[in-house]
Amino acid sequence: QKEVEQNSGPLSVPEGAIASLNCTYSDRGSQSFFWYRQYSGKSPELIMFIYSNGDKEDGRFTAQLNKASQYVSLLIRDSQPSDSATYLCAVPLQGAQKLVFGQGTRLTINP
Amino acid sequence: DAGVIQSPRHEVTEMGQEVTLRCKPISGHDYLFWYRQTMMRGLELLIYFNNNVPIDDSGMPEDRFSAKMPNASFSTLKIQPSEPRDSAVYFCASSFSQGVKVYEQYFGPGTRLTVT
Q1: What is the pLDDT of residues B7-44, one digit of tens each?
Q2: Which of A19, A57, B52, B86 has its Cβ near the most Cβ atoms within 10 Å?
Q3: Could you tell me how many helices (H) and strands (E) chain A has, helices first?
């Protein structure tokens, strides 16, 4: 099992719908979880982080964390074409400051 | 703040040449990370520093790669000699720490390296 796994893309969602991105991780001791968005040819940009079980909402974005099941998800409501990008899940492992990134899920929002 | 600054943005070099990539982290951040991104392998951590000291270089692919951080505002990643398989986008990122909590990392714009 990889340390951080994301559902394989590409994921295609119609404009206005909810996009759901999932990520599982192997280290039960992980305490922080990050979602980055990366547009083609650009650097990863932090969009959400979550530390506690449950949901965290920021505008159209909601991060959901379930430590018992070791997964974290990102929901994008009212998807817009500008949300089309690759979304990377990142988890610090082994109590270190370094992050391990998933392979990313490419999301396409269709007008 | 200007964010993480990297130079050059693009580098094209011939196999066997030395390549030096540069990074200036966000002021006040005490962690600095070097990543490499390729289509095949995704985003890989090469090495990271805390307060200018290398903490983990287990991701450095081989002895041809070396990294330094002479002060809190500057770091270099050097490849010597370069090979075509080193072609990738190299990112520098920095973060702030407080105790054991892991904080978010902020990425620079990256250096696209092409070795012919």
Answers
A1: 999 999 999 999 999 999 999 999 999 999 999 889 99
A2: A19
A3: 0, 11
Q: Which of B43, B49, B60, B98 to mutate to probe the A interface, most A CBs <10 Å?
A: B43
Q: Which two tokens stand for residue A92?
A: 């610090």
Contact of A66 with chain B, judged by CB distance below 8 Å, is answered with no
Residues of B at the A interface, defined by Cβ within 8 angstroms: 31, 33, 42-43, 45, 48, 50, 55-56, 91, 95, 97, 100-110
- How many residues in chain B? 116
Number of H helices, E strands in chain B: 0, 11
The per-residue pLDDT for range A15-68, each reduced to its tens digit, is 999 999 999 999 888 888 999 999 999 999 999 999 888 899 999 999 999 989
